[in-house]
Amino acid sequence: xxxxxxxxxxxxxxxxxxxxxxxxxxxxxxxxxxxxxxxxxxxxxxxxxxxxxxxxxxxxxxxxxxxxxxxxxxxxxxxxxxxxxxxxxxxxxxxxxxxxxxxxxxxxxxxxxxxxxxxxxxxxxxxxxxxxxxxxxxxxxxxxxxxxxxxxxxxxxxxxxxxxxxxxxxxxxxxxxxxxx
Length: 181
Known about the structure:
By secondary structure, this protein is an alpha+beta fold. It contains 5 helices and 5 strands. The radius of gyration is 25 Å and the shape is globular.
């Protein structure tokens, strides 16, 4: 009788390497499990990206703020133009000025004026609040409107249409046009 080579043994540590790889893949895929599950059962599913980190708490807006937010969101896709305040194009402060005007409230026209002339936000952000940022623009200021869910609507700059983006940190101030209303 001729003896064969005997039972085959795995290389030392091979099973551990596979376990580590599978564990890392599972951890990376966990946030996308619902979308991936949809793919497994034949449905079309999009993988949702996580929200912006450290998004501030959002509270329910007063009615005027809801109208201002709705107006600003309806301007998505319109072009940016320096000094424009609608209806066909907007700059950043022109968008926020026109949005609040549509809600029946007159606010300062420029981002610097809005920061200086409106009440500061105390506590969490609400839809309709304005976030003022420092920029390299001639005025040195940029303004965007909080829309909720860690997002804001803005007319950011040349060749970028009005759009919704995640709230960025590092703003100079947050103001609430509807304070006291």
